[in-house]
Amino acid sequence: MNFDEYLLQIGKSSCTPEKRMELYNAWRRTKLRNNQIERRKYQKRVELKFSLEDFNRFKSDAEKLKTSVTAVLQNVITKGYQEQVYMMVSHEVLEAIHLKLSEIATSINQIQFHIDNRPNNQVYLEDTKKLEEQFYKLENLYLSFSTPVSLEQFFREEQQKNNRFIEYVQRILDIIKNEL
After folding, report:
1. pLDDT of residue 29
2. 124 phi and psi, to 5 degrees?
3. Predicted structure pTM score
4. Residues 3 and 27: beta-carbon distance below 8 Å
5. pLDDT digits (tens, 9 = 90+) for 75-87
6. Measured between alpha carbons, how far is 155 from 158 in angstroms, rounded to an integer?
């Protein structure tokens, strides 16, 4: 509803310019307040604080992508948190996955060979079970390196291996605090 319709609705369409300005300001405040209330039902505002260095890094990335810093951060949050995208950084993990995929490919080729050379295109149950087991091993290998690790659990395990681990981490954190 625009302002003229509002004036008609309240029966003040032929008021003085001063009264009209007063009514316009009241109408505008009400409209803005209602819009804000409606927006809060579907959107939440979060304020993030960054060091100037971090902000400039985000800003340069945003300029390269020809977008805003807000859009870059929203994209990072969406991809990293909501869609749970993880990065695999270990070359050894990639080699292990490649090895498992090669084993699976070999098994599929063997099954295909047996189908072609056996009467009635038979496939033995043990062949399919072996292939299924290889797929599970691949899945477990991939999931073990692509799922987030509980930081608390990591610290507990490292503390069990080395009783002074927490002390070392605390020293590192103290040094970082002093640098900031």
Report:
1. 92
2. -75, 145
3. 0.35
4. yes
5. 877 776 665 555 5
6. 5
